[in-house]
Specification:
By secondary structure, the protein is α/β, with parallel strands linked by helices. It is built from 18 helices and 21 strands. The structure holds iron/sulfur cluster.
């Protein structure tokens, strides 16, 4: 059973020019609202005296609530539906004739026990979008739904993603109140021109002040997201951003190279030849500089894009990179439960209506068979600096990677792309520095 939960908040103040995440700026949402009002008018026109009372009630309900309010209500309901006592798949149809006997895994529960059983969570991650956009009521209702559904007595890490413009003391206290103990803040750059070019709505000064408020509120586990290979970015500007972030002294830094994704404003600019991006060579230079510079200040790289102080790795993201299972709730969210990867509807109305009417919110389901699970474990493991944990792999699949991919592993060790290493009394198969530069080629050999 998964012990991690991802919650998706798809709202942002404004859509950034490079962003292809499932998130909507408020202006976009207002457009969507007016589309809904049009739909209501059509339904109203169709309505006649014989039409059911239900439709009118439904319309009133629909009319009176903004997408955001309806979304939050549906989201909380979806979370509560994860309560195991609501999960009929654990029930035998012939339940009573089995004299209320009941098993989860190989553990026995009686009927009464199952009603009180709550899944224990180790990590929660509220991501988006911009979860810090939520007001105090919305944060609290989310907290209530989580506490009602899960056992948090062994919770290790509870992260919320925030943006500088929507951080304030009241919200921080509300986050802490529902159990949040880690903040991930999207800063991206310490150069205001770059922030403006990205379509961000905060300045470097706002980012610093949000960071200081977080520290004053005794948040002692902070990640800062930064980006490189930005339009018109010079190497010196990148160095400057790194220095400024190091001065803040966060526990964790995530650094991503800008990728121009289809469907974004940047993509159109790129297609029209008006996006001046650093060369591939400059991009690699910025990346290697970052790794060396952060290392000097005690940030250890544990994943391609992630650096942390000792023991401050993001435990939730490690669940993904170790190919462990997790729940995902919210618009378009993915989950991986009982060997099946699922994802929710990406359309607001479909998502909200499904939750509220008790239908499934899942629009795609993929059974991860052993062959794929083995490959994913290798692929994701190679993202980690430690590499693929050999014993962990054997425990899961019953054999060591070498037993299946002998010739491939031998070849890449010979070519200098892979290496065996021991760390903390565990054996790993990992990419070398050279292997990381050609990671896709190495990994595709394991397919
Ligand atoms: S704030 Fe984040 S999620 Fe929202 S539009 Fe910008 S990059 Fe995308």
């Amino acid at each position: 059973m998964p012990s991690s939960l991802y919650i998706h908040i798809p709202f942002c103040v404004k859509k950034c020019d490079y962003c292809d995440f499932l998130s909507f700026g408020m202006a976009q949402l207002e457009e969507k609202e007016s589309e809904n009002y049009k739909k209501i008018n059509i339904l109203n026109e169709k309505n006649d005296l014989n039409d059911s009372k239900n439709l009118l009630n439904e319309l009133n309900d629909f009319n009176s609530k903004s997408i955001r309010t309806r979304y939050m209500k549906a989201l909380c309901k979806e979370i509560e539906n994860l309560n195991i006592s609501n999960d009929k798949s654990h029930c035998d149809n012939d339940f009573t004739s089995l004299q209320n006997e009941y098993y989860i895994g190989n553990k026995h529960y009686g009927c009464k026990d199952i009603k009180n059983y709550k899944t224990k969570l180790k990590t929660i991650f509220i991501g988006g979008g911009t979860p810090s956009i939520l007001n105090l009521d919305e944060i609290n209702m989310l907290g209530v739904a989580i506490k009602k559904t899960f056992d948090l007595s062994e919770l290790e890490e509870f992260t919320i993603e925030v943006n500088p413009e929507s951080v304030d003391l009241e919200k921080i206290l509300a986050w802490k109140n529902i159990g949040v103990n880690r903040i991930s803040m999207g800063v991206q750059s310490s150069t205001d021109d770059e922030l403006q070019n990205l379509g961000r709505i905060h300045s470097w000064e706002m980012a610093q002040s949000a960071y200081n408020i977080l520290r004053k509120a005794r948040i002692n586990n902070i990640n800062i997201d930064i980006m490189f290979s930005l339009p018109n970015q010079t190497f010196e500007q990148w160095q400057n951003t790194i220095e400024n972030i190091i001065k803040l002294n966060p526990e964790h830094i995530s650094a991503y190279s800008l990728i121009v994704e289809e469907g974004t404003k940047f993509y159109n600019m790129y297609e029209n030849g008006i996006l001046n991006l650093p060369s591939e060579e400059d991009d690699r230079k910025m990346y290697h500089y970052l790794i060396n510079r952060l290392m000097k200040d005690g940030y250890y790289q544990y994943e391609i894009s992630n650096f942390s102080k000792k023991n401050r790795e993001c435990r939730h993201n490690l669940v993904y990179w170790n190919a462990y299972e997790y729940y995902g709730v919210g618009l378009g969210a993915s989950g991986y439960v009982n060997g099946v990867r699922v994802s929710n509807y990406t359309d607001f109305d479909k998502y909200i209506n499904s939750v509220m009417s008790g239908d499934t919110t899942i629009c795609t389901k993929e059974l991860i068979d052993n062959k794929q699970a083995e490959f994913e474990k290798i692929m994701l493991g190679f993202r980690l600096n430690k590499g693929v944990d050999i014993v962990n792999f054997k425990n899961k699949f019953g054999f060591k990677p070498y037993q299946k991919w002998e010739s491939i592993i031998d070849k890449w060790i010979r070519l200098g792309g892979l290496i065996y290493a021991s760390e903390d009394n565990r054996d790993y198969l990992r990419l070398t520095d050279y292997g990381r530069d050609i990671a896709n080629t190495v990994i595709s050999d394991f397919l």
